[in-house]
Amino acid sequence: TSLRDIYDTQWALIIGIDKYHNEKNLEYAVKDAEAMQDLLISHFGYSKDNITLLRNDEATLQNIKTQLGKIAHQTKKNDAFLVFYAGHGITKPTHEGGEMGYLLPVDGNQDNAYATCLPMNELKSIGSISHTKHLLFLMDACYGGVMAISRAIDKKAPGYLSMRKRTQGKGRQIITAGGKDEPVIEKSEWGHSAFTLNLNRGLKDGNADMNADGYITANEL
Questions:
Q1: Other CB atoms within 10 Å distance of the CB of residue 202
Q2: Conformational region of residue 87, where left means phi above 0, alpha means psi within -120 to 50, and beta covers everything else
Q3: Which residues lie closer than 8 Å to 150 by C-beta, 6 or more apart?
Q4: 5, 20, 61, 69 from 171: Cα distances, Å
Q5: Residue environment code for 76-90, b if the CB has 16+ CB neighbours within 10 A, otherwise e
Q6: What angle, 0 to 180 degrees and rounded to 10, lies between the N-to-C axes of helices 121-129 and 61-74?
Q7: Cα separation of 109 and 125, whole Å?
């Protein structure tokens, strides 16, 4: 089974923000985003024409939402849609005693999160309006109140099922860097955040292919 047997088209929205208008700057978010774009093209058959990369001032709240909606409506039932975000995440309490997680756009202000930031439950809505077969969010940010958007996994499925069989159903999954009290970790000797460093190790080097079948599922990653 090849990727062409699984997907007709692979789409990606990649966001990296180092230089914030209202928040502390980061060092490697843009580099992480660029590395993810290169990885998708070089190792996973993505076309650059189907990847949208937003860096720094391009990553306003309005532009992120515009591109999310645009790609979501373009995707068809046999497509894949990957969203990668590298930047700040914040957590705000709700009046019901819970928590809401937000991603900070370049123009975001955590003192007015509702009006200026992207709430995580909006990502759940993207999963609902997109026809795509598989939707994966890779969030290199730390926050609480993550909405559960992944489907249940049938752990009784026999291991000998073909990749075609295992990828027929729809899936929406999210992998995050950490919770609200875990700041993004960057080191100059890595040249990346800890999250993207290990994404590269898992994907580029193939270390996440736990059953050595030549395919890396989101659960393995």
A1: 16
A2: left
A3: 171, 172, 173, 174, 218
A4: 17, 33, 26, 18
A5: eebbbbbbbbbbbbb
A6: 30
A7: 22
Q: How many CB atoms lie within 10 A of CB 10?
A: 21
At what angle are helices 29-43 and 194-203 packed, to 10 degrees? 10
Name the one residue in this structure whose structure tokens are 């292919």: 209
Contact 142, 182 (CB under 8 A): yes
How many residues would you count in the chain?
221
Q: CB neighbours (10 Å) of residue 40? A: 21
Task: Give the contacts of 184 (CB within 8 A, at least 6 positions apart).
Answer: 26, 88, 140, 141, 142, 177, 178, 193, 194, 195
* Average pLDDT for 103-108: 95
Closest CA to 219 of 158, 151, 147, 165: 151
State pLDDT tens for residues 121-168.
Answer: 888 788 888 888 889 888 887 654 454 444 433 433 334 333 444 455
- Single pTM value for the model: 0.79
173 token code pair: 């999954």
